[in-house]
Design goal:
The chain is of the alpha/beta class. The chain has eleven helices and eight strands. An eight-stranded mixed sheet has the order 3-2-4-1-5-6-7-8, sandwiched between helices. It starts with a helix and ends with a helix. It binds guanosine-5'-diphosphate.
């Protein structure tokens, strides 16, 4: 996903490595190159600037200039810094309560329903849980059908009430249903909108209040670049979510949003979606993503 950025960084480092005698000016120039590459990859300006400033300070502090292989040391510093920027280490889901309530939020098309199915599958297969999916997207009948199909695929029951148009009542009834039926995780798929609007925010906030979820996962399409960061900020301001799910990382994304989201909303990325199939879900590893970025 970051091949473009990576190419540019490679080139920047080649320049640095090619210099027999590295000066502070060379480092500054390289940082400028890196900052440009990050901006081109759709990382927001503030993140790119603070990242390169931090790397530069560390590089000078660790005496990169007089080290045997400055390029290598600088790569390590950048790797560590990127890892830190994306959350440091894996942030596990909080799934100890029974039932654990997980609210799924995001705009239409972000991949909420698909992720709900994937998460149910992941929790059943990898964590030995007995999840219940709740079809809370009342405005799109197709979304209810879609969730039922996915539920069948991953062998997880789906709570549906086709007679209700009240997402809050459905969510609450879904939780009650889980308690009655011994489901220890409830995954509530919610309705999105094409863009952020007040009705959506009021509704999702009301669902949160009524169900008191332990996790609120904000799902966002990584291909939407800078918009992903803005949407994340708007949702977080209202919902105070507990984690981010970046979908469609299998596509040809510019991907810079992954770097920015954590620093802008200060919430961990917990999962990445890497395809349409139910198995195409990975726990987000900041160090792996950093290595992938830097190559
Ligand atoms: P929702 O409106 O937020 O519920 O979004 P959907 O779950 O319906 O997903 C919208 C489209 O994106 C569907 O065609 C999904 O198959 C697709 N999709 C979801 N997640 C991924 C992913 O990680 N990778 C790819 N390539 N497609 C995805």
């Amino acid at each position: 996903m970051f091949s473009n950025l990576q190419d540019k960084l490679d080139r920047a480092f080649k320049v640095l490595k090619g210099q027999g005698n590295i000066t502070e000016i060379n480092v500054a120039e390289t940082m400028k190159e890196i900052r440009k590459a990050l901006l081109d990859a759709d990382v927001n300006y503030k993140t790119a600037k603070s990242f390169t400033d931090e790397v530069r300070t560390k590089a000078l502090g660790q005496n990169v200039l007089s080290s045997v292989s400055p390029g290598q040391l600088l790569t390590k510093i950048m790797n560590d810094e990127l890892t830190e920027l994306m959350g440091g280490s894996v942030t596990e889901l909080e799934i100890t309560k029974s039932p654990t309530i997980i609210l799924i939020a995001g705009l239409n098309g972000a991949g909420k329903t698909t992720f709900s199915g994937k998460l149910a599958n992941f929790l059943r297969e990898n964590k030995g849980k007995k999840p219940l999916l709740v079809a809370g997207d009342v405005y799109r009948p197709a979304a209810i059908d879609q969730l039922e199909v996915l539920g069948k695929q991953v062998d997880v029951p789906v709570y549906v009430d086709r007679n209700s148009e009240d997402p809050i009542a459905i969510a609450v009834a879904g939780v009650a249903h889980a308690k009655q039926n011994g489901n220890n995780v409830v995954i509530i798929d919610t309705a999105g909108r094409l863009a952020i609007d007040e009705a959506l925010m009021t509704e999702i906030t009301a669902v949160k209040q009524a169900t008191q979820p332990h996790e609120i996962l904000f799902v966002v399409d990584s291909m939407t670049g800078q918009d992903a960061v803005n949407t994340a900020k708007a949702f977080n301001d209202r919902l105070d979510f507990t984690g981010v799910v970046l979908t469609k990382l299998d596509g040809d994304t510019r991907g810079g949003a992954a770097l920015s989201i954590k620093s802008v909303v200060n919430k961990p990325i917990k999962f990445i979606g890497t395809g349409e199939k139910m198995e195409a879900l990975d726990v987000f590893h900041p160090d792996r993503m950093a290595s992938r970025i830097l190559g």
